[in-house]
Backbone:
């Protein structure tokens, strides 16, 4: 299959690639928010245990 | 035990009747929403006849949704709910009483005025009959299911439109069968089977909803 | 004894450590299945007789719809465990599953709609299956909305559990009433959603993609549950050691 054939996908290219793009976008959003949240929680824990009352 | 249940029902109904606002506003809302549709659709008789089931049912649904959210609210605020939870009477029965009182004061006026609204939307006698019976069979289910939602949000301040969002998916079967019955009546098909299905829905809700409402109340009262 | 079982196997700390060791495996499985499914589905599966290349959307549409339903079942089971046995992990699983499930349901609706336009000429049609998936989305969103507004943690878990259970009890009723409603209002166009038997070269990428979506769900679920566990258990000593981990 040539690249042009690939992108065209028998005339349905726009639909197919849009759906796959949206899927990857949804995957990406979920991954990104989970990892971002993880970093935020780690920071919170660090700050919690760095409090003077907890250092003992 | 039955005397205490009777007292609760009498108390609820008296409270609602004394304040015209409580039972009048859902009724007026129902009437006004039904009247909005001919204004939006135009006066074509056939069109109104065709969409009348949908209009009346959706308007009734919305009117009930507006009133059911508050059945436990004043009790929770006054601390009366805590007492109810501590009473020896089973919570399921207490919930059933409250829902029945709500149905009598809020839904029964809707059912009584629905023939008049049917006239406005050009329903014939057979369709009016179907309308009254379906509302009679459907509104208890709406009250029962709405009570679950009301119990879930009882302690939450500023819940906004959360109750409709929670309860609407549950209302969809009732809506489908209610309007289906009326459309069958429109087409002069036999409708007793539909009544049976709606009866089944009532029985199912009666069996499950008070239990779940009681459960939700116990959770909600801690907030 | 149930308490002992709960403490030993289902404690947040045990779950955290076990899931941390399982996570790389799930990620690897996801990458493998997704890679194979994507490449085989897009390039190597032959074009469909009726739909031409357009059928390739099936490789994201069917897995997302399947995953959305599967996730709701997981949510329902967790809800029962939360309400009846008061297992904390189950409550966390329920809350996290809802968010991913809502995303997948949304994805199923969007990909299905885009598939529908070239195939059946319309962006949307009120047939039984699409309407049921739409209502499933509302159930997910209602659950998320309720959980976001309750402040107390324990009440949030239990109230959410009730909503999930009520939803799962009603789901068959809603589904069958929607099917009935659809047959009642059958228009002149016959719905062409009946799938003929599918060739193996088309089937294997589909199965791989379904597995990939479920592995992705597992990965995101583990990450989300770990975050929730850390937030809830922040006062416990073992959270200090977590800071040593890399990711």
Residues:
């Amino acid at each position: 299959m040539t690249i042009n054939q690939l992108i065209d996908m028998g005339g349905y290219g726009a639909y197919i690639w849009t759906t796959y793009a949206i899927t990857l976008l949804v995957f990406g959003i979920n991954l990104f928010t989970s990892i971002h949240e993880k970093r935020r929680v780690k920071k919170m824990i660090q700050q919690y245990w760095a409090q003077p009352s907890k250092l003992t | 035990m039955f005397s205490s249940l009777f007292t609760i029902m009498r108390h609820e109904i008296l409270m609602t009747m004394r304040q015209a606002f409580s039972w009048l506003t859902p009724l007026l809302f129902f009437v006004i929403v039904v009247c909005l549709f001919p204004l939006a659709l135009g006066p074509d008789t056939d069109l109104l006849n065709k969409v009348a089931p949908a209009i009346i049912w959706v308007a009734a649904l919305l009117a009930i949704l507006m009133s059911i959210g508050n059945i436990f609210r004043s009790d929770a605020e006054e601390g009366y709910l805590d007492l109810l939870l501590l009473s020896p009477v089973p919570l399921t029965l207490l919930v059933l009483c409250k829902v029945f009182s709500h149905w009598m004061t809020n839904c029964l006026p809707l059912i009584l005025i629905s023939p008049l609204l049917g006239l406005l939307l050009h329903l014939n006698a057979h369709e009016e009959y179907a309308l009254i019976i379906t509302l009679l069979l459907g509104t208890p289910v709406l009250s029962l299911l709405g009570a679950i939602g009301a119990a879930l949000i009882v302690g939450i301040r500023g819940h906004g439109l959360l109750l409709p969002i929670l309860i609407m998916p549950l209302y969809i079967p009732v809506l489908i069968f209610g309007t289906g019955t009326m459309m069958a009546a429109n087409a002069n098909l036999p409708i007793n089977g539909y009544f049976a299905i709606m009866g089944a829905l009532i029985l199912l809700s009666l069996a499950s909803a008070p239990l779940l409402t009681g459960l939700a109340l116990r959770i909600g009262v801690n907030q | 004894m149930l308490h002992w079982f709960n403490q030993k196997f289902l404690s947040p700390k045990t779950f955290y450590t076990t899931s941390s060791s399982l996570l790389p495996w799930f990620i690897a499985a996801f990458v493998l299945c997704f890679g194979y499914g994507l490449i085989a589905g897009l390039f190597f599966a032959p074009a469909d007789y009726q739909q031409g290349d357009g059928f390739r959307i099936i490789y994201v549409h069917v897995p997302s719809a399947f995953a959305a339903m599967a996730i709701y079942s997981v949510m329902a089971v967790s809800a029962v465990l939360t309400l009846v046995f008061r297992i904390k992990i189950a409550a966390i699983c329920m809350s996290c599953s809802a968010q991913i499930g809502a995303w997948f349901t949304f994805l199923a609706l969007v990909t299905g709609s885009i598939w529908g336009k070239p195939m059946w000429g319309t962006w949307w049609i009120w047939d039984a299956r699409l309407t049921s998936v739409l209502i499933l989305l509302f159930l997910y969103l209602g659950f998320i909305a309720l959980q976001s507004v309750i402040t107390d943690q324990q009440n949030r878990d239990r109230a959410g559990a009730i909503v999930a259970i009520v939803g799962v009890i009603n789901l068959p009723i809603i589904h069958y009433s929607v099917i009935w409603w659809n047959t009642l209002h059958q228009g002149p166009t016959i719905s062409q959603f009946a799938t003929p038997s599918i060739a193996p070269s088309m089937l294997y990428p589909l199965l791989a993609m379904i597995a990939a979506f479920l592995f992705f769900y597992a990965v995101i679920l583990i990450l989300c549950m770990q975050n929730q566990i850390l937030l809830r258990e922040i006062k416990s000593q073992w959270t200090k050691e977590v800071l040593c981990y890399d990711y």
